[in-house]
Design brief:
The protein has 447 residues and is of the alpha+beta class. Helix 1 runs parallel beside helix 4 (171-184). The protein has helices spanning 17-32, 72-90, 128-143, 171-184, 300-318, 370-383; strands at 2-13, 39-42, 59-60, 114-123, 147-148, 159-169, 188-190, 193-196, 207-211, 216-226, 240-251, 258-262, 270-275, 285-289, 327-338, 351-356, 359-363, 412-413. The protein has a single domain, classed as 3-Layer(bba) Sandwich (FAD/NAD(P)-binding domain). The strands form two sheets. Strands 3, 4, 5, 6, 11, 12, 13, 14, 15 and 18 form a ten-stranded mixed β-sheet that branches. Strand 9 (207-211) and strand 10 (216-226) form a beta hairpin. The protein is globular and about 65 Å long. The longest helix is centred in the first third of the chain and has 19 residues, at 72-90. Bound molecules: flavin-adenine dinucleotide. Residues 13-19, 42-45, 49-53, 57-59, 194-195, 198, 227-231, 245, 247, 289, 292, 333-335, 363-368 line the site of flavin-adenine dinucleotide.
Length: 447
């Protein structure tokens, strides 16, 4: 079964942070130049950003963490992206959510992008090599303005804490600001539509979208961007690192600092990012993630084992009682990065590579690098003549209703601590469930 084809100028497949930020940036630039560019963002899920961008696991890397890596390129990529964040978002008067980009943390807004700063927590060293590593890291961190800041919540006999220039990132607020701006600048979203045969997308054939009822639509676009994250097609000359991880969350959020615990064994890294409630009808929560160390297709048992392991580690930092009366849940998340051959010297940076003429796959590598990614893609499409070769508006250009951003996490109860808090449901506009045209209904998983 198929219905009439869609014609547009830019088709973006995948509505995670990559797809949404690119659509927003192009549509804003089109408005600035007073040009009409038909942008369609299609996603297989019923809501926006329900892939790895939905986990709220992230913190905003201005680079502190990457001073630790051998490759200084990751650090430089963070700095570059930060500059673009200031220019294209925080200080951009044509971005109608610029006040939400609260880089100085002082701005009063009900949808702030950034929260408290992050502290590194280092085990008190007892091995010479580790002592040297810690020394090297703290020297580098001091050089970029980080200071030691012992915290009352963390046992300073066992851990050393360092304040950093990184911050917690309210990814759901960022996504909703960007989606809102994209929509107000004319971008259309089509949720509940999966692009099929992505692996063969290195041709200029139209892309076929299929909804859950099997209804197919072909999309003819002059420029196509594939931002499907984990499902990015394989490429002969590029090695991807595809990994899965478990993110554990607790609600209400912990009354404790945001931390990244950097352990000697990287599999034991652990982080705590608090997302306090902003609106009165929402409950805050904390995300506690490990570094994505699970196999490519983990079984539920593996996930649960890892979730318990994370809880064990985080409790050893904050103490058991910090979790009394809190709900604990987990969800699995997947991510894709472009890996170098030597996996020990990974470099994080946004990547755009050509599949066919005017067809690209795009990978942010990190959520926080979306400003650089959106800018890089806009520049590429301008080079490709997007703003010069515009078609007349077509009658078949689809017009969907406003889509809704996925809830922060879809959780599965871990059952570690007794549940004493009242049942918690996400509420408010962000979590409204409105299936769009032909999409399947979606029910929220509760803690
Ligand atoms: C455990 C973990 C911890 C992380 N920590 C951090 C951190 O601290 N800081 C940070 O900056 N980043 C972090 N990241 C990385 C960050 O989350 C990702 O790099 C980023 O969210 C990727 O965004 P994306 O838009 O490329 O992919 P996604 O958000 O996954 O979006 C892809 C979209 O494409 C859709 N899709 C897939 N296939 C199809 C198809 N065939 N047709 C149509 N739609 C399709 C999906 O439904 C999805 O909505 C972490 C990731 C993980 C997993």
């Amino acid at each position: 079964m198929s219905s009439a084809p869609i014609h547009c100028d830019v088709l973006i497949i995948g509505a995670g942070i990559a797809g949404i930020s690119i659509a927003e940036r192009i549509s804003r630039e089109a408005k600035r130049q007073n040009k009409h560019i038909r942008i369609l963002v299609a996603d297989s899920a019923p809501m926006l950003a329900s892939g790895s961008s939905s986990g709220l696991q992230g913190w905003f890397h201005t680079g502190s963490l990457y001073t630790r890596l051998d490759s200084s390129e990751s650090y430089l990529n963070c700095v570059k992206s930060h500059k673009i964040l200031e220019r294209d978002y925080a200080n951009a008067q044509d971005f109608n959510h610029h006040l939400n980009c609260n880089l100085n943390l002082d701005t009063q807004t009900n949808k702030p992008w950034f929260g408290d700063s992050i502290q590194f927590v280092l085990d008190k060293p007892d091995q010479t090599s580790w002592t040297q590593q810690v020394h090297a890291m703290t020297t580098r961190l001091r050089a970029i303005g980080c200071s030691f800041d012992p915290s009352k919540q963390i046992d300073t006999n066992r851990y050393t804490t360092i304040s950093t220039t990184d911050r917690s990132m309210m990814t759901c607020n960022i996504i909703s600001s960007l989606a809102d701006s994209a929509i107000s600048n004319g971008t259309k979203f089509l949720t509940g539509h999966r692009a099929i045969e992505l692996q063969g997308s290195d041709t200029n054939e139209p892309i076929t979208l299929e909804n859950v009822n099997g209804l197919r639509r072909q999309v003819h676009a002059s420029h196509t961007l594939i931002t499907t994250g984990y499902n990015i097609p394989n490429q002969p000359h590029i090695t991807f690192s595809r990994r899965s991880g478990v993110i554990v969350s607790t609600t209400p959020c912990l009354d404790a600092p945001n931390i990244v615990r950097v352990a000697q064994d990287p599999a034991n890294n652990v982080s705590h990012i608090a997302h306090p409630s902003i609106a009165s009808n929402e409950t805050g929560f904390s995300a506690i993630g490990d570094s994505t160390s699970l196999s490519d297709q983990p079984t539920p048992d593996e996930c649960i084992k890892t979730a318990h392991h994370i809880m064990h580690k985080i409790k050893s930092v904050f103490g058991n009682q910090a979790f009394d009366g809190r709900r604990i849940a987990w969800h699995m998340a997947r991510k894709i990065e472009v890996a170098t051959l030597d996996k020990d010297s990974r470099t994080f940076g946004p990547k755009l590579y050509e599949l066919a003429q005017n067809r690209y796959a795009v990978i942010p590598s990190k959520f926080s690098l979306f400003p650089a990614l959106a800018n890089m893609t806009l520049v590429q499409l301008i080079d490709d003549g997007l703003f010069e070769n515009l078609n007349a508006p077509a009658t078949n250009y689809c017009n969907t209703s406003k889509p809704y951003v996925a809830p922060m996490l879809s959780q599965q109860a871990l059952g570690i601590t007794p549940i004493q808090t009242p049942a918690y449901r996400y509420s408010g506009k962000l979590n409204s469930v409105r299936p769009t045209e032909n999409s399947r209904s979606f029910s929220m998983t509760q803690f």
